Known about the structure:
Elements: E1 5-11, H1 23-37, E2 41-47, H2 57-67, E3 75-78, H3 84-98, E4 103-108, H4 112-121, E5 126-131, H5 138-161
Parallel strand pairs: 1-2, 1-4, 2-3, 4-5
Amino acid sequence: xxxxxxxxxxxxxxxxxxxxxxxxxARRVAHAAALARAGTVDNLLMSGGAVNHPTPEAxxxxxxxxxxxxxxxxxxxxxxxxxxxxxxRRCAPILTEQGWTRLLxxxxxxxxxxxxxxxxxxxxxxxxxxxxxxxxxxxxVLAHLREVPAMVKTLTRLYVIx
Length: 162
C-alpha cells in the first residue's frame, strides 16, 4: 500500500550561533519526522541553505530527522536556498528528478498560507501540514503578525517584479 505522500518538503528556519536548531527549526523537523514514522510520508526533503550560520539549515534538519529515527535513505537535502521563494525554486528540480508528485509542505502553521502560495506559483501542487509549539508565546504571536507584510512582499516579488 502506498503512503499518502511521497515526499514532505520541510522548510528551514534559523540555525543558532552555536549551530543548534532554533525552536522553529526543531519544531518543523519534529513534526515531519513524526509524519514519516507514522507512515504518512515516505521521504523528507529538507530545504534551507546557510543563511545565519555557516552550516546549512538543511544539514541541521537532516541530523535532527536521523536522530528522531527516520532512515537515512528517506532524508534528502536541498542546501542552497535562502528564503521561501528560493526553497520552491530549488526543490522543484529535485522533486521532478525523483518523480514525486504527492507532496506535503511542512512549516510552521503561521507560514503555511504564504508558503503554499509560493510553491503553487512555482507549479507545485502541495498539501500543507503546520507545526505548532506546545505553548504559544509572544514570539509565536509576533510571527503571525509578521506574515502580513511578508505576504505583501511575496506577492510583489512573485507577481509585480517577477
